[in-house]
Amino acid sequence: MSIKENFIALIQRLQNEICAALEEVDGKAKFREDRWERPGGGGGISRVIADGAVIEKGGVNTSVVHGQLPELMAKQFGVTEAQFMACGVSLVIHPINPFVPTVHANFRYFELYDEQGNLKDSWFGGGADLTPYYLDEKDGIHFHQTFKNACDPFGKELYPLYKKHCDEYFVNKHRNNEARGIGGIFYDYLRPTAERTAEDLFNFAKANGEAFIHAYLPIVNKTKDLPYTAAQKDWQEYRRGRYVEFNLIHDRGTLFGLKTNGRIESILMSLPPRARWEYDYHTVPGSPEAKLEEYLKPREWAV
Q1: Alpha-helical regions (H) of the chain
Q2: Under the phi-then-psi rule, with left for phi > 0, alpha for psi from -120 to 50, and beta for the rest, what region is 261?
Q3: What CA–CA distance (Å, rounded) separates 41 from 198?
Q4: CB neighbours of 47 closer than 8 A, spacing ≥ 6?
Q5: How confident is the model over 174-228, as pLDDT tens digits?
Q6: DSSP 3-state of 283
Q7: Most buried residue, 34, 71, 200, 271, by CB count within 10 Å?
Q8: pLDDT digits over 109-147, tens only?
């Protein structure tokens, strides 16, 4: 099979496996599935879960779209007439319990063709990051170490590089460069080269996609039954406000979807069901909430 066919099969398998694992850990809610078609070509499968025993709202989406390159992308790539294919899996999970972190991940592949349909360019992108509200340091270490272990067989330099990219990307610049969470890995525009073939890059994406369940589910199982107060839920919703701000102001994928007439329900699937904003809010020095803010500063997690 081609790289494109292999990647489409991978994202469909990851969607099935991740949804099954999340339904099992939730124990109550099931994913609702919507299949949709894109007017210009292709479509996707959106799966959303809500009002569960563990998950307040979440989604695991796949899409495979193709056709005429949107004008915005054509300008970005410096081309006029071109065809494209983009496929990927994207997920966001917002748990009920404030001791369970929110998580985001996506893995995608893009091909660009000339007017005759010949492959002109291709690249991979993806990553995963964790947004806790309260954090046991061991859980942050576990999340990062799992992805480092997935990256290392492809080059010891990759995890530090893509962790740095993640730390630099998921930042609310308008909030004095405050990080959205504790990061993970993030990479984009990975093109095949003589040193790293398309197959190498596919296997790298596959390893990280398969690492997601192992990185996140143990943390969920450890924290989902911890008791919490209304004040702790308020703090979770306050921090979710920062999540919303990043997604609507800075996230390239969200902005691209909104500017290219993407499927709005799938684009905004990442937003939490509830968030809050308070004027001039400050944490109490020495409190667990203040400790969380310290974790938002870039640091080394994995060994």
Answers
A1: 3-26, 71-77, 137-151, 158-169, 198-223, 230-249, 252-259, 264-267, 288-295
A2: left
A3: 24
A4: 15, 19, 31, 32, 33, 34, 59, 60, 61
A5: 999 999 999 999 999 999 999 999 999 999 999 999 999 999 999 999 999 999 9
A6: coil
A7: 271
A8: 999 998 788 999 999 999 999 999 999 999 999 999 999
Per-residue exposure over 92-109, b if at least 16 CB sit within 10 Å of its own CB, e if not: bbbbbbbbbbbbbbbbbb
Pairing assessment for the beta strands 102-113 and 32-37 based on DSSP bridges: unpaired
| Site of tokens 């870039």 | 298
Which value, to the nearest 10 degrees, does the dihedral of the CA atoms of residues 148, 49, 16, 98 take? Answer: 20
Backbone torsions φ then ψ of 56, nearest 5 degrees:
-75, -40
> Among 117, 136, 61, 138, which Cα is nearest to 92's?
61
* Sheet of 42-50, strand order: 32-37, 42-50, 55-68, 83-95, 102-113, 119-131, 183-190
CB 143 within 8 A of CB 100: no
pTM: 0.95
Per residue in 256-296, pLDDT (tens digit) is: 788 777 789 888 989 999 999 999 999 999 999 999 999 99
What does the CA dihedral 9, 11, 14, 19 come to, rounded to 10 degrees? -120
Residue with tokens 């993970």: 184
Q: What DSSP designation does 130 have?
A: E
DSSP state of 284: P
How far is residue 3 from each of residues 116, 206, 219, measured CA to CA in Å?
Answer: 20, 12, 33
Give the catalytic positions in this structure.
104
Cβ proximity of 251 and 170 under 8 Å = no
